[in-house]
Design brief:
By secondary structure, the protein is of the alpha/beta class. It contains six helices and twelve strands. It has one domain: Metallo-dependent phosphatases (Purple Acid Phosphatase, chain A, domain 2, 4-Layer Sandwich), CATH 3.60.21.10. It is globular and about 50 Å long. The chain binds fe (ii) ion (FE2) (2 copies).
Length: about 260
Amino acid sequence: MRLMFIGDVVSKRGCEFLANHILDLKKEYEIDILAVNGENSAPGNGITKSSLEMLTNCGADVITTGNHSFKRRESVHLYDECEYLLRPINYPDGVVGKGMYILDLGRTQVAFINAMGVIYLEPIDNPFTAIDNALSKISTPNIFIDFHAEATSEKKCIGHYFTGRVTGVFGTHTHVQTADEMILGDHTAYITDVGMTGPERSVLGVDSDIATVKMRLHFPVMFEESKEPCFINGVVVDFDEQTGKARDIKRIIKR
Ligand SMILES: [Fe+2]
Ligand SMILES: [Fe+2]
């Protein structure tokens, strides 16, 4: 069975570029399941009803988020209404939404967990503990984690700690694809960061001139989406649905 995971889709242009190419990509890589990180899919970050619809229309079976989950206050209710829209599982009890989803394909089930790192991000609950708790409730061997984190060290430790217990650990959040895709312990597909989907020559999707003024002068600016050509970053994992073992992980860059 094959799963494609698409890195943080940025704004309307990222959603549209994905929509224009996803059918061809799914066909080319013979994809059965599509997972997408949508935390930046709305203009100005976060996710809205309309960006959720765009990603759903792309065929996303599950949509993960991260530190921008709740950026759009008017859309927070979506996390309770849409069963396949996740926010990090290690938010404290009482926060709207959920961090786990089981996709039922009939012949098999595939579980998704979204978690967030705590290094250089909000100090929410311990992600190791939260994922451990989630795993104790899952019976399918097919389990994928979107670990949304800043520090490469924290992502590597999550990959190491859950090796052999999950089918894949995909890092997100930095918007820069890393070249370290590997199979850990002959079981777990891993990559430190999947990258992003949106304008390639940009600062994480933002217009480079504007982002540089902010970085150079520490002066408040209004971020604008870059108008440069878009690309898609993702990974494809081939796995054995009987054992949950990943056979192969491939990085995808589609321009
Ligand atoms: Fe992001
Ligand atoms: Fe993020």
